[in-house]
Amino acid sequence: MAPLPGSGLAKGLAVTLRTMTKKSVTAQYPDTQPDLPPRTRGVIGLFEENCTVCMLCARECPDWCIYIDSHKETVPAAAPGGRERSRNVLDRFAIDFALCMYCGICIEVCPFDALFWSPEFEYAETDIRELTHERDKLREWMWTVPAPPALDPAAEEPKEIAAARKTAEKLAAARAEPQEGES
Amino acid sequence: MNDALDVTLRLLIVFVVFLTFPLIIGQTEHKVMAHMQGRLGPMYAGGFHGWAQLVADGVKFAQKEDVVPAGADRRIFQLAPAVALLPYLLVLLAIPIGPSEGAVGEVIDAGIFFVLAVMGVGVLGSLMAGWASANKFSLLGGLRTAAQLLAYELPMLLTAASVAMAAGTVSLPGILDAFEWWWLPWQIVGAIVFFVAGLAELQRPPFDMPVADSEIIFGAYTEYTGLRFALFLLAEYAGIVVLCGLTTVLFLGGWHGPWGADGLGWVWTLLKTAVLAFIVIWLRVTYPRLREDQLQKLSWTLLVPLSLAQIALTGVVKVVIQ
After folding, report:
1. In angstroms, what is the C-alpha Rg of chain A?
2. Closest to B21 in 3D by CA, of B268, B237, B252, B231
3. Residue of chain B minimizing CA distance to A9
4. Helix axes A7-21, B2-36, angle to 10 degrees
5. Residues A166, A167, A169, A175: what is their CA dihedral angle, to the nearest 10 degrees?
6. Digit-coded pLDDT (tens) for B201-250
7. Which helix or strand (DSSP H or E) is residue A14 part of?
8. Do A135 and A93 contact (CB within 8 A), yes or no?
9. CB-CB neighbors (< 8 A) of B35 in chain A
10. SS3 state at B84
11. Are A99 and A71 in contact (CB under 8 A)?
């Protein structure tokens, strides 16, 4: 049966009326803060305790917005007669967010987990120079980094946990064996 | 002295209604349209859900410079907004909202004639604006307005004539005195034709080719700025009030309601007018703009025959019941 003439018009009216009765999903941003998931690309936090000044992040950065200065210090030998070790000490770590394009490559390449995404995004400035966040400011952003989302229920165990568990089991087994021999 | 006071009071009330109702409808349109499109609409002006948005808009318009283009016909250009707006004020004067003597600005014996003739003048404002602006877009808009006026004035008049025939009078309160509930199904075709033709005459979407902003900037109003532009917008919303009020009075029985007709007649009138105004907004949100030729086709091949059929039906029924 052919549709009644004008049924399309009525359908259109029904659609708009139904939309009107539904609750609007608009978020009133400055009044209500958005609920952003972990790893949202807001700002980059630096966990400087983990940084070894390997410079990977600065070299991989596509627009060269990471500035790192460091110097070497010698650490006295751990064992008597051993060789003195040298170690990198971080002097300056700065990210120019006026240049940053939020690609996240620095965070991906960091082998020591020293860089993290934080969902904070309200750091606009009236002076472009203020957008270069120095080491202390980058460290402060670390407090705003949320815990990563939980793994999927059937996901593989994370590698570091698996490794830690294996070591713990081995140790426990090694401790248990001599005890059995004594008794 | 008492007469003068009475007249002054009536004029004042009509004037206040004329200034507030279009704003209420405009604000309703803001919010209803927003929610129909899944938005919130104005939320800040005035604090509570943006209730003062149109007041803020008015302040903004008043601050703007009033520009008259160099090539424009200066006096006609400046007069046009008044010509567009004032007729609706005059029409509002003649619309009865309650059964008593006091519930109408001025009883006019030939009410339908007066109302339709004066509403036609309102369109002249757009024509004047279109011609006087010395702008091609404005001229196109003005010509489209003229074409639209020609096409839609006819079905509007014919359906109004049908109601006048049914009531045996052309006075608006007279029509309402003669109203019976079964007029509703009897005149329903006429009501729809009248309402649609009225929408077209107001250049409301989906009949807004004369101002089609994506094709001809803003039609006849392209060159207007500041308060004069605001007056044109106000005329559009005043037109909605007038059209909805007229449709209520002519076809929906005005102050007659299923219950509580004594003393509450004006509530019924306002309620029906408000529902019609909501429908005007609803149609605007739902339907895309008709093309210019589709508009003419709708009028000449559908609305005019329908209104003629309505007149025939009215005549036949009238003869039979006598």
Report:
1. 27
2. B237
3. B287
4. 90
5. 160
6. 888 888 888 887 788 888 888 888 888 888 888 888 888 988 898 888 88
7. helix A7-21
8. yes
9. 19-20, 24
10. helix
11. no
DSSP 8-state assignment for residue A118: E
Angle between helices B53-63 and B2-36 (to 10 degrees): 100
Give me the residue spans of the domains in chain A: 33-173
Range in A36-40, B173-177, B226-230 the model is least confident about: B173-177
Interface test mutation site (partner B, options A16, A18, A19, A22, max chain B beta carbons within 10 A): A16
Residue closest to B305 by CA, chosen among B159, B187, B149, B117: B159
Question: Residue A43 — φ and ψ, nearest 5°?
Answer: -145, 160
Alpha carbon separation from B13 to B106, B227, B242 (Å, rounded): 12, 23, 15
Q: Check: CB of residue B188 under 8 Å from CB of residue B166.
A: no
A183 and chain B in contact, CB less than 8 A: no
CB contact under 8 A, A16 and B43: no
Query: Per-residue pLDDT tens for A70-114?
Result: 999 888 887 887 788 888 889 999 999 999 999 999 999 999 889
Q: Which residues contact B78 (CB under 8 A, 6 or more apart)?
A: B68, B228
Backbone torsion region of residue B155, taken as left when φ is above 0, otherwise alpha when ψ lies between -120 and 50, otherwise beta: alpha
Q: Architecture of A33-173 per CATH?
A: 2-Layer Sandwich (3.30)
- Tell whether A14 is within 8 A of chain B (Cβ): no
User: Among the residues of chain B, which ranges form H helices?
Assistant: 2-36, 53-63, 74-94, 111-132, 136-167, 172-178, 183-186, 188-202, 213-216, 226-251, 265-286, 292-297, 304-321
Give tens-digit pLDDT for A113-133.
899 999 998 888 899 999 999
| pTM over the 0.80 mark | no
